[in-house]
Amino acid sequence: MSNTYKSAGVDKEEGYKTVDKIKKAVGETHNSNVLNHLGSFGAFYEIGGYKNPVLVSGTDGVGTKLKVALDSKRYDSIGVDCFAMCANDILCHGAKPLFFLDYLACGKLDSEIAAEIVLGMVAACKDNNCALIGGETAEMPGMYQPGDYDVAGFCVGIVEKDQIIDGSKIKTGDKIIALPSSGFHSNGFSLVRKVFPDFEEEFEGKPLFETLLVPTRLYYKDVHKVIEEVKVSGIAHITGGGLYENIPRIIGDGLCASIDASKIKIPSIMLELEKRGGVAREEMFGTFNMGVGMIVVVDPQHAEKVLHLLDDAYEIGEITEGSEKINLAI
């Protein structure tokens, strides 16, 4: 019997099934700027209507949150996570997402699982007026075990050059406003899984995995609602490293983000992890978003308007003089 690609562990037919399952839904994310269709070697996107456009790109994955999804056999939220982690990053510069591409790797492809992951991306793209214009599925026996998957995404957005938000206009007295997270988002899951090894246990009346798999919040609509109304000095996406690592990325020399942690609304699941795992409060704030998925920095005269525009936003601090870049009083 001769060797075949299938006998080596790669089933091309399952790949074709995956494409068939997602093709129609992916096409629904396209607009008139998309010049090609699924199956091309490259993805084409036409840009128009801008005076001095700057492309802003970002790439990310969902880390070991995938393990929770795979063990719980819940896959759709992972696609949302993948898109959100990329789109929320470029949003920090005021960019609107134009198009998204995905990369899915596995040991043995299951078209049902792969399609469910991608359809989650489709839903997120639609919610953000973004086109899913390409991707790659790699079946890699020997590199991944059967049942293992990894996923990454690539998002490209656009912003007028004179409207780029980079933190350079942040000044003393500016207010720091928090936009709540939907949970852990897609960071810190190696510690989450260590403290919560049983995803089926009950937490607040439902299986724990339902709380852990709540997808990363998409901030596009909220942030652009604010940008259209007021001048925003800085935006930070609170991902790995928490407030400690992400806020200083937009703070200039001689300035400090002074934050009162007592004002932060910490989700109950994070308090439970802190208690059960015996995790120090400083470690919690240096690993998780602690309920703050994104922050915006605005002139104090605009703070009330931002709070009015965003029902669930709230103030957590202000910009002061200092050399530390962040002072988080916990």
What does this structure look like?
With 330 residues, the chain is of the alpha+beta class. Helices cover 32% and strands 25% of the residues. Keywords: ATP-binding, Cytoplasm, Ligase, Nucleotide-binding, Purine biosynthesis.
Task: Provide a short characterization of the protein structure.
Helix content is 32%, strand content 25%. The chain is of the alpha+beta class.
Helix content: 25-40%
For the termini, the CA-CA separation is 68 Å
Q: Largest beta sheet: what is the strand line-up?
A: 8-10-5-11-9-12
Query: How many β strands by DSSP?
Result: 12
By secondary-structure content and strand pairing, the structural class works out as: alpha+beta
Q: Helix-strand pattern, N to C?
A: HEHHEHEEEHEEHHEHEHHEHEE
Q: Note the quaternary state here.
A: single chain
Give the strand content.
25-35%
Biggest β-sheet strands, sense, barrel: 6 strands, mixed
Spatial extent as radius of gyration: 21 Å
Low-confidence stretches: none
Shape: globular
Query: What average pLDDT do the residues reach?
Result: 95
Total of DSSP H or I helical runs spanning 4+ residues? 11
